[in-house]
Amino acid sequence: MKVKLASSYGFCFGVKRAIKIAEEYKNSATMGPLIHNTNEIDRLKNDYNVGLYNSLDEVKDNDTIIIRTHGIPKFDLKNLKAKDAKVINATCPFVTTPQQIVKKMSAEEYSIVIFGDKDHPEVLGVQSYAKDQDDVFVILEPEDLNNIKFKYSKIATIAQTTKKKEKYLEIVNTLIPKNKEVRVFNTICDATFENQDAARELSKEVDIMIVIGGKNSSNTKQLLNISKENCIDSYLLEDERELDPKWFKNKKLCGITAGASTPDWVIQKVVNQVEAY
Ligand code: F3S
Fold this sequence. Notes:
Layout lengths: L1 E4 L7 H12 L4 E3 L6 H11 L2 E3 L10 E4 L6 H9 L3 E4 L3 H15 L3 E5 L5 H7 L8 E4 L14 E6 L5 H11 L5 E4 L6 H13 L4 E5 L5 H13 L3 E4 L15 E6 L5 H12 L2
The site of FE3-S4 cluster (F3S) has 12 residues, from α1 and α4.
């Protein structure tokens, strides 16, 4: 069976990059989980002896510490650098950008609004770069702006990388009539949406479509629904053991895509198996 992979699938650029960095630094440790995927973290531990620290107190002299994809707060980074450890930064470049914007805009006396989840590691990291921690506000809804007293009449806004643009626009539209100056930075990352566009395109040209990912993962289910719109023979499975040879009878081309939390090695096993049919 001929296989064609979607032009974008599985882990995003930032996660792939962080894994590559971790593989380069055997016997190191990450500060907080490197990515949101326990299977992959276990694999890095087993194959590369990459450990996991949850607090700075665990860091020992001469350790090599990898900073996770979502970044860490500025003060943690400072404390880490003060220790006798080698620091390797695997923060996704799309997360470093909002950190730098917050630093610059708050130094220029803009009040800061962050559209995001206040407990998310990425947001905690980005927020920490504000000069004045009392003048940075993390919100989820336009209504959350109602009771905020900004220090300055100039506002700078950024968004958590995985947030939806539509809601961000609502927040910006609420801010503009009430403030003299609003600087809007589009820090939303398109990676999650790229997999969906690629699945849509691929499902138009294949006879059968395989979507690999967790049965409970909402982004994987979304990929299945999109695939089904164009290719009725679309199947969702977690790994190669769930493949059924009957599905491939009289089919010529099989499209494969995977959810954002599916590691490459799981995908590869499915590809090998399908190619053998
Ligand atoms: Fe991934 Fe970086 Fe975007 S971690 S979702 S590419 S912000």
